[in-house]
TrEMBL record:
Presence of the UniProt keyword Nucleotide-binding in the record: yes
Domain DAGKc per the UniProt entry, residue ranges: 22-150
Stated name of the protein: Diacylglycerol kinase
UniProt xrefs under SMART domains: DAGKc
Alphabetically ordered keywords of this record: ATP-binding, Kinase, Nucleotide-binding, Signal, Transferase
Signal peptide span: 1-22
A Gene Ontology biological process term: phospholipid biosynthetic process
UniProt organism field: Roseimaritima ulvae
InterPro entries for the chain: ATP-NAD_kinase_N, Diacylglycerol/lipid_kinase, Diacylglycerol_kinase_cat_dom, Lipid_Phosphate_FormReg, NAD/diacylglycerol_kinase_sf, YegS/DAGK_C
Classification via SUPFAM superfamilies: NAD kinase/diacylglycerol kinase-like
Length: 331
């Protein structure tokens, strides 16, 4: 059994935790040098690169990350660490998921938002996060498959479609680096002045088709998106279910009320929100709705989503809780 070093390291200074990190198995670290905190983490990068049984690769782009992750087992690595943001994690997940035998997986959150790392309770302090990546408890975590007419892709955290996707498409690398997590708020400002309406048809599992007029559609495995916004506060990444959040079409004046309810309580109880759970769903909309998955735009509109239960064995932080304290509503 791999020792749970993270619990021990959480009680000692970060500098000491960094010096105590050691690899217990052949480990591939996919280091994204373009991530938001990569430059500030230079010392940690040097230390990880010097560890025995560790190969650290500076990645070039998403396809490079995906290829390296896909070849990890073949190259003799039994553990893969994605050092970057949610886009880096997503690229690695898409490299791992087609494999019949997958290495264990961990996240080192050096990106802009690091949303999935928050669901896994990975410490924001990078020295402590590194200790989790190498020695934290490991749990079987679900992954969601997104299907289009031409291909399939996977994501660990969240897919957002409709007007929320438009926010993602406005965020260049330069905007992310300049604004940090606030870049998602900046991107939302212009979208709020021109909200589009979508007529969506949705079938959950083997149920009947439902029709909704919506602004946004969110399919979640993790709990936060767009810079730690709790969009799916009741999601459990181990329950074999996806969480579906529909933001219904309304008047522009309804938006401030929804924002206030989000700020002071569980916004899913708003009359503008419908919250469902399912193992799979079929999806269609007019006009066609494009999605972003874990912060990366998808060019083709999806036709469906399904959960792959326990797909990845992942390192989690010492404060990780799979099941949120409140039960899922059926609305």
């Amino acid at each position: 059994m791999i020792p749970n070093l993270a619990t021990t390291f959480a009680t000692i200074p970060a500098a000491s935790a960094t010096s105590a990190i050691a690899a217990t198995e052949p480990t591939l670290v996919l280091w994204n040098p373009h991530s938001g905190r990569a430059a500030a983490a230079g010392q940690l990068r040097q230390q990880l690169a010097a560890l025995r049984d560790v190969r650290l690769v500076d990645t070039q782009h998403a396809e490079h990350i995906q290829q390296l992750a896909a070849e990890a087992i073949q190259q003799g690595f039994t553990h893969v660490i994605a050092a970057g943001g949610d886009g880096t994690v997503n690229a690695a997940v898409n490299g791992l998921m087609p494999l019949r035998q997958r290495p264990s997986f961990a996240v080192l959150p050096i990106g802009t938002a690091n949303d999935f790392a928050q669901t896994l309770a990975i410490p924001d302090d990078l020295a402590l996060a590194a200790s989790v990546a190498f020695g934290g408890e490991r749990r079987r975590i679900d992954v969601i498959e997104l299907q289009t007419e031409q291909r399939r892709r996977w994501f660990a955290n969240m897919a957002a479609g409709g007007n929320s996707d438009e926010v993602t498409r406005q965020l260049t690398r330069e905007v992310k680096q300049r604004w940090g997590p606030l870049c998602y708020l900046r991107g939302a400002i212009s979208v709020l002045t021109d909200l589009k309406e979508f007529e969506a048809k949705i079938r959950l599992d083997d149920g009947s088709e439902e029709s909704w007029s919506v602004w946004n559609v969110i399919v979640a495995n993790g709990r936060t998106n767009a810079g730690h916004l709790q969009l799916a506060p009741r999601a459990n990444p181990e329950d074999g279910l996806l969480d579906l959040i529909l933001i219904r079409d309304g008047e522009l004046l309804d938006v401030p009320a929804l924002v206030v309810q989000y700020a002071i309580s569980d916004y899913i109880h708003s009359d503008l929100v419908r919250y469902r759970q399912a193992r799979s769903l079929r999806f269609d909309s007019q006009p066609p709705m494009r999605f972003s998955i874990d912060g990366e735009a998808v060019d083709e509109p999806p036709t469906g989503f399904r959960v792959v239960p326990g797909a990845l064995q992942m390192a989690v932080g010492p404060q990780y809780v799979a099941n949120p304290p409140t039960a899922h509503p059926r609305r």
